[in-house]
Every structure is written in C-alpha cells, then in structure tokens.
Amino acid sequence: MATTILKAEGAASVEYAARIEHVSKSFAGPAGQQLVLDDITLDVAPGEFVTLLGASGCGKSTLLNLVAGLDRPTAGGITTDGRPSLMFQEHALFPWLTAGKNIELALKLRGVPKNERRGRAGELLELVRLTGSYGKRVHELSGGMRQRVALARALAQDSRLLLMDEPFAALDAITRDVLHDELTRIWAETGVSVLFVTHNVREAVRLAQRVVLLSSRPGRVAREWRVDIPQPRRIEDAPVAELSLEITEVLRGEIRRHGQH
C-alpha cells in the first residue's frame, strides 16, 4: 500500500493537530518482516493532551517517531498541523553550549533573527521557571533542570504539536512530580497539543485528557479513556488512583493475552 505523510501548512482553523489513519509499521528481522504497529487510527485535537500507554515493546516510541517524520509507515498516512517538535527521555542538550544557547540554536534553525534570539530564549527559560539560568552549562544543571531546558528548546520550535517520549522516566519521583505540575501549567498557558508516551499508568492519568492504550506487539489501539478529573491533579488523588487501577487491569490482561511477563 502506498504511504502518504502530509504536513498541513497550519490553516487558521484545523480539526486536528495530528491525524493517524490506518497506520502499520513493519521492520525486517531474522524471521522476515515483523509487524510492530497494526492498523492504528488516532486523532489528536488542537490543544488536546493525549498519553500513549502500553507495555514495553508495544510500539509507542515507533508511533511517535512516525508522527515526528523520523520514519515512514509501511501502510497508512499521517497528517500533522505543521511540523511537530520532539522531546526525548534523554535531554540531548549540547554540553558545549549554555542553556540559553541550546535554546537559541533551535530558534536559529527556525529562522528567528539573531537580534531576537536571546530575548526569546530568556522568555522560554522564564516559562519553564529557569530564569537566570541562561549562562549555565549543562553540567551545572540538575536532571530536572536539564529536562526543563529541553522542554524550552522544544517549545522554541513554535510547533502546534509537542511529542514527548518518556521525558521524565529517568528522574526521581519528587522531581518527576514537580515537572508534571510544570508541564500541565505550560500546556494550559501555551495551548500546544501534546502526544506523550509513557509506560507509567499513573503518570498517564495524572497528565492527560485522554489515555490511549496500545496492545502488546503488534501494537493496536486496545482501548481509550477520557479523563474527566479536574486539573490540577496529583498522583495520589483518589480519582487518579481509581482510574489508574482500572487501566492497569486492562493492561495486565493485554500482557497476559500476548504471553508477556
């Protein structure tokens, strides 16, 4: 089947930030082609926060890479409202640049004039609550601060869709909880759409308006949940815990059904 990936030019009013239509992805393996994603159809609305949840190896990161345009699906099509920005689990900051210069690099690549970059980088550092950190080198920043700079750099791309691949997985619980609060605030302030990959059920419920569960390989949309719990939420809130337990039971069933442990 022919594959088409379209990048919308950002019309004044669009129905979606990302549209994934009947997408499948296979990779060559020792036993031939291995199907990783199978007939995925999913929309992300403008300004929506969606978490992709599933067991390790179910294809969550593969799907995110396809949406980002880093790879092409074997079948189906993906349309996005402009070019997405991508944030990884590792901060991927350039260690020879300061926090501010890492952000300025993204602005430069976007075509922002040189005389505007420093001011804009300062505004983004302020948005992620790192005011005064413009001149700090990467080694001077804590893990949480590095992820804040990485988030500011992603936002510097001025994309309507932010793709996040387990960006807080390597952080300690307290730092992760603080960054959950910060991401929720930034999402509300900017109106950006977010597609967030995680294998942490409570994190998925804590952050999202909608949780999408992928089955074990090959990844298919197994089930979706609308999260109507008002923000701000906490990991330990009873409604978050209750919905997390429900989703966990379904996830366990998917894992058992596919013979994974």
UniProtKB/TrEMBL annotation:
Q: Which PROSITE patterns match?
A: ABC_TRANSPORTER_1 (PS00211), ABC_TRANSPORTER_2 (PS50893)
Q: Which InterPro entries match?
A: AAA+_ATPase (IPR003593), ABC_transporter-like_ATP-bd (IPR003439), ABC_transporter-like_CS (IPR017871), ABC_transporter_ATP-bind (IPR050166), P-loop_NTPase (IPR027417)
Give the protein's recorded name.
Sulfate ABC transporter ATP-binding protein
Provide an example Pfam family for this protein. Answer: ABC_tran
MF terms in GO: ATP binding; ATP hydrolysis activity
UniProt keyword annotations, A-Z: ATP-binding, Nucleotide-binding, Transport
Organism domain of life? Bacteria
CDD domains named in the record: ABC_NrtD_SsuB_transporters
Q: Which SMART domains match?
A: AAA
Q: Say if the entry is tagged with keyword ATP-binding.
A: yes
Answer yes or no on keyword Nucleotide-binding: yes
Domain ABC transporter span(s) in chain numbering: 18-243
